[in-house]
Specification:
Blueprint lengths: L4 H90 L1 H25 L17
């Protein structure tokens, strides 16, 4: 440093040239990398959009099939329900006293069970609520 200052200047110039060259290479690489990343992102976006479109179409198709099947089952249930009601009405018309006795018996059993439950499990008594101080009605 003190003995040969002129010898250092060419080395510094060489270092500066090397740094500039390295800077140019890095900037080219970053541009190429940025373009590659943009291309990969665009390609990934297109692929993902296509996959989601396929999945959405499958869901739409499946939902349509499920809806048609539900309508078909609903029609069958309605037909069976109407047939059961017609049969019950026919049987009640033939034997009205028997069905009245069955209804009374079922009602008595349910009432007795409920009464027994109420006796065995009394509801806890609530303490009367007092109005809060400062709140007037």
């Amino acid at each position: 440093m003190f003995g040969r200052p002129e010898a250092r200047y060419p080395e510094i110039a060489d270092l500066r040239r090397g740094v500039r060259t390295l800077d140019r290479l890095i900037s080219r690489m970053s541009e190429a990398t940025a373009e590659g990343a943009r291309y990969a992102a665009d390609k990934g976006r297109e692929t993902t959009a296509g996959a989601f479109d396929d999945v959405a179409e499958r869901f739409r198709t499946g939902a349509g099939r499920v809806g048609k099947e539900a309508v078909r089952l609903g029609h069958r249930a309605t037909a069976l329900g109407e047939m059961s009601i017609d049969r019950l009405a026919k049987d009640v018309g033939l034997h009205p006293l028997m069905f009245l006795g069955i209804a009374l018996g079922v009602g008595a059993i349910i009432g007795a069970a409920r009464y027994r439950y109420a006796i065995q499990n009394p509801t806890p008594r609530r303490r009367p609520t007092r109005p809060r101080k400062g709140i007037r009605k």
